[in-house]
């Protein structure tokens, strides 16, 4: 595998062997987070035969200062925006858990909800937030919903989704246990894997701009400038975990 100057492996192609199912589940806290974290990868790998699915844990109901918007209207808008963004990228489907935005806690219900989706989708790879970082580069706070989502997604991968005695009622309903092989964590200071998305950066921008209640074009353009490397490249960086079971 080629590596960049820092020695971080760069994978322009699919990181699975021929016999592995090319399916990924992106577990995000809010509508738009999956696109910030992994839109370029989702688009790029989908073109290489992967199936991507999004799971959004909260209803996004705190994501606006517009007093004219009712809570339900905002929820409905953000759902549609996330579906529109997913369609841009070739993401197969979007699932919503509708936990209340800003009030996510690492409880049994959230864990069971994510385990159920993993058992339904049976993904080779799970993408999610970094649960470990609280303060980001001394200039920002990693949203509590992001931390809780990342932690619950990782706990769902191991051991909950794998073992039949966890949430046995799901097994009784006919779902199968599932072993996720790889976890990709965005926003981690311990990134060890990069996907070069330079050639598809327009698709990431288009996906982000589908979230019309959240961003305007100038904001996304400014973000892109900030994310651009000195060489003019764009990457999505992850801490990749290759599960050893
Ligand atoms: Zn978020």
What does this structure look like?
With 245 residues, the protein is α/β, with parallel strands linked by helices. The protein has helices spanning 33-47, 71-89, 108-121, 144-160, 168-172, 201-209, 217-227; strands at residues 23-28, 51-58, 93-99, 125-129, 135-136, 140-141, 182-186, 193-196, 235-242. The chain contains seven helices and nine strands. The strands form two sheets. The chain has a seven-stranded mixed beta sheet, with helices on both faces. Strand 5 (135-136) and strand 6 (140-141) form a beta hairpin. Helix 3 crosses helix 4 (144-160). It binds zinc ion (ZN). Zinc ion is lined by residues 29-30, 33, 143, 146.
Write the layout of secondary structure elements.
Layout: E1 23-28, H1 33-47, E2 51-58, H2 71-89, E3 93-99, H3 108-121, E4 125-129, E5 135-136, E6 140-141, H4 144-160, H5 168-172, E7 182-186, E8 193-196, H6 201-209, H7 217-227, E9 235-242
Parallel strand pairs: 1-2, 1-4, 2-3, 4-7
Antiparallel strand pairs: 5-6, 7-9, 8-9
The structure holds zinc ion.
Q: State mean pLDDT (0 to 100 scale).
A: 92
- N/C terminus separation: 23 Å
Low-confidence runs of at least 5 consecutive residues:
10-14
Backbone shape: globular
**Spatial strand arrangement across the major sheet:** 3-2-1-4-7-9-8
Largest sheet: 7 strands, mixed
The total of beta strands comes to 9
Relative strand content: 15-25%
Structural class: alpha/beta
Percentage of residues assigned to helices:
25-40%
Q: Supply the number of helical segments.
A: 7
